[in-house]
Write a structure and sequence with these properties.
Blueprint: H1 18-21, H2 26-43, H3 49-56, H4 60-66, H5 79-92
Helix pairs in contact: 2-3, 3-4
Length: 93
């Protein structure tokens, strides 16, 4: 099922030839910027993995799988969430 969610766009300014300097096409550069911005927002807890994947234009599983390539853990728990998970696991034993 595809949702028809209205989209917006923004413009990023960069020096002419910058993607080619990085040995990327313009499209590859745009995809990289979208992914990296999404990964960072996910890493700092501003958006969920699902929203980050949507922003990156990817399926959630593909987004989570690719996070390791930029050093971002796929499981992103805050300290208090980790403690709660540990406590819940102890109660199961």
């Amino acid at each position: 099922m595809t949702l028809n969610i209205p989209e917006q766009s923004s413009t990023i300014t960069y020096p002419q030839g910058f993607p080619q300097m990085m040995k990327m096409s313009d499209g590859e550069f745009v995809d990289a910027i979208r992914f990296l911005a999404s990964a960072k927002l996910y890493e700092i807890g501003r958006i969920t993995a699902g929203k980050a994947a949507q922003l990156a234009g990817m399926k959630r599983i593909d987004f989570l799988s690719r996070l390791g390539t930029v050093g971002v853990p796929a499981i992103n728990l805050q300290a208090e969430e980790v403690e709660a998970e540990i406590q819940a696991a102890k109660e199961l034993v």
